[in-house]
Amino acid sequence: MSKPLVRPKRKNPLQRTRLPLLPHGQRSRTAHGLTLAAAQGRFALQVCDDCSKTIYPPRDACPYCLGAHLPFKDVVPDGRLIAETTVRISTDPYFRERTPWRVGTVQLDAGPLVIAHLHGDTVEGERVRLSLKIDKSGAAVMVALPAVETADMQADPILREMTCDPQFRRVLITDGRTAVGQAMAKAFCEAGASIVFVGIANAWKPYPGMQTLAGLDQVEIVPLDLTDSQSVTDLAGQNGGRIDIIVNTAEHVRAGGIIGRDGISEARDAMDMRYFGLMRLAQAFGPALRFRGADGQSSATAFVNLLSVHALMNWPAFGAHCAAEAACLSAAQCLRAELRPGGVKVLNAFFGPLETEWFQTVPPPKLAPSALAKAVVNALKQGLEDVFVGDIAQDIRERLAANPKALERELGEG
Amino acid sequence: MSAPDLLAFAHAVASGAVRVIDLTQTLSPDFPTIALPPEFGQCAPFRLEEVSRYDARGPAWYWNNFTVGEHTGTHFDAPIHWVSGKDLPDNAVDTIPPHNFIAPAVVIDCSAQSAKDADFTLQVADLLAWEADHGRIPAGNWVLLRTDWSKKSYADFAGLRDDGAHTPGPAPEAVRWLVEERDVLGFGTETIGTDAGQAHHFNPPYPAHFYMHGKGRFGLQCLTNLDQLPPTGVVIVAAPLKIRQGSGSPLRVLALVGATETGR
Questions:
Q1: Could you tell me the pLDDT band of residue A13, with boundaries at 50, 70 and 90?
Q2: In terms of Cα–Cα distance, which of B140, B146, B139, B203 is closest to B169?
Q3: Which residues in chain A (193-222) have CB-CB distances under 8 A to chain B?
Q4: Please, what is the end-to-end C-alpha distance for chain B in angstroms?
Q5: What is the DSSP letter of A18?
Q6: Averaged pLDDT for residues A289-302
Q7: How many domains does chain B have?
Q8: Is residue A12 situated within a structural domain?
Q9: Does B53 fall in a domain?
């Protein structure tokens, strides 16, 4: 059985901080079908269009019928662990620091044999459930989990390595004035974060929820204004070296499109808060995050972006807002590549209209801030890179995949 | 009338016989700006972005770009700022005749009343009482309202509660009286604006803006160090940036005081 995580001892300041190492992460273009599924927490393998066989590892031709049409499809991840071994010595720089490391062969019910990393609670000969995870290098890997959830299974070192569990980690919520920021603070406290730093800009301006927020046990209010470079640098100077997860909750939502607006003041404010704010955060905190990617059990692990799903396709009713969100999405893709050498993940959480003041006139379904916060914590626990939260976000993703042009027209019709 | 001896004046400044008192708040990112309902356009706070600091971006020099609203920090309000002054001639910071930027001032000390009541409003009676002690307010003077508001924490300075800001300012009748009966040059305050925090409930709303700018007069706000000024005998140097059709501008406000005059 997994042992529950214990709060890590304070670090010995006389010891050198170990630098991040990565397992080999190169994959073929075809194999990135697995990366896509892993990033979203799905389990997908190639299924031959011609002979319907499920195939693993990824190939460009079906080994049974030589068919060339091998789309990735969601597959039942259940199977049996038929053999296991423990690697005690490795020449690979990443793994030699992490031995002993269990690997095994899983016979999937869907057909293929899969070599997988083994969760500590899996037993040879027993049923297991495979999960596709993104490892430190950003590549998709197979992890065999016990078929039935076990107590404290999240504490397993292999799983901890592949995921971004907030437990015993120190989190920065960048804006605590918003309903989302406050829901996030609460969710991360409940998820067992050691400290939840919550940024407040313009402390001279009161805000609803101030007392409740400050009353949360792990919460520490810090001055932070993402529109002010100096403020971001100051906080990074003070706390940058002890923040493991950043959740950027800064928002700037205004209705209105492009030509229907007078001037660019509001759009500029949106870009300043969202795009430049993200850039200021990343520049000030990114280097320390990347440096601390292997800093023990509670290493730096994730940078979370909250993005309107309309970053993917503009919704003209909130057109200028969507453009700023699209800029943030693009920056997040860059940030992902830049943080990968440290094994630090970028999680993008996409969502539709929220149950908040700025979407007051938008009809339901709207996403509650608490639901968004819960989904983000869950996604971190699973180690995802992309999560689509709520019906609207799911719907937009599906329509975008099916026919982007149709989606563009439909959103433009109101 | 013989020409004034400007060199003697310059020597008096250099020797300290004329004291120069800085009435300006430092432009910094965290200084409060006026808070309008969020659906309105907002006044940009002061922001500084480094261009280079003896580094790869510019090896031998340090400089910044800054952004700021016309009404951020210690700033000047031109008549064009308010709808009541929109059609006046020479009503913007670039067209106001520059002699207006050097002018005498009287200082009305209401710090005691303001300490007791954040919503203190300056009445005509207060002005008459001041005149009883110091003489009639001369035409062409700045009238500066001392409240010691500049000494407060930012939260108390902004004075924001769930029914809006609570900061002292002038009553409509008092502003009108200053303009029509005393022909003053403008009105200056330590608070975030020339009007009281609750002045949107006055009739007319924002009377310092409405009457002063409606008659082509000026405003100064976010002043500091007014406690160092005597009630009379002060000269204010307050020249806004020459922004084309600008409604106002952050500026350095200096007070010149004869060395024998003291604040208290």
A1: confident
A2: B146
A3: 202-206
A4: 34
A5: P
A6: 94
A7: 1
A8: no
A9: no
Q: How many angstroms separate the CA of residue A232 from the nearest CA in chain B?
A: 12
The ipTM assigned to this model is 0.89
Catalytic annotation, residues of B:
81
The pLDDT of residue A223: 97
Per-residue confidence (pLDDT) for residue B263, from 0 to 100: 42
- Structural domain harbouring A96: 32-162
Query: Is A283 in CB contact (< 8 Å) with chain B?
Result: no
Say yes or no to pLDDT of A81 above 90.
Answer: yes
Rounded to whole angstroms, the Cα distance separating B71 from B27 reads: 12
Name the closest residue on chain B to residue A232, using Cα atoms: B29
Contact B160 A205 (CB under 8 A): yes
Q: What integer is the mean pLDDT of B138-161?
A: 97
Binning chain A into helix, strand and coil, the percentages to the nearest 5 are: 35, 20, 45
Query: Which residues in chain B are closer than 8 Å to A204, comparing Cβ atoms?
Result: 32, 153-155, 157-158, 160
Mean residue pLDDT across chain A: 96
How long is chain A? 414
Residue B209: closest CA among B201, B173, B218: B218
> Cβ contact (<8 Å) for B42 and A231?
no
C-alpha distances in Å from residue A372, one per residue of A301, A366, B83: 20, 11, 45
**pLDDT value at B245 more than 80:** yes
Average pLDDT of the segment spanning B143-172:
97
Neighboring chain B residues of A205 at a CB cutoff of 8 Å: 32, 35, 158, 160
The Cα–Cα gap between A352 and A364 comes to: 10
What's the CA gap between A394 and A261, in Å, rounded?
30
State pTM to two decimals.
0.94
* Domain housing B29: 6-33+70-258
Task: Determine, yes or no, domain membership for B47.
Answer: no
Residue A270 contacts residue A324 (beta carbons within 8 Å): yes
**Which domain CATH number covers B148?**
3.50.30.50
pLDDT (0 to 100) of residue A261: 85
Query: Which pLDDT does position B259 carry in this prediction?
Result: 78
Q: How far apart are the first and last CA of chain A?
A: 54
> Cα–Cα distance between A69 and A46 in angstroms, integer?
9
Subunit contact B41:A265, Cβ cutoff 8 A: yes
Mean of pLDDT values over A88-104: 96
Residue tagged 């596709």 (tokens): A132
A152 and A174 both lie in a single domain? no
C-alpha separations of A334 from A263, A346, B28, B57, B222 in Å? 30, 10, 32, 22, 43
How many whole angstroms separate alpha carbon A238 and alpha carbon A244?
14
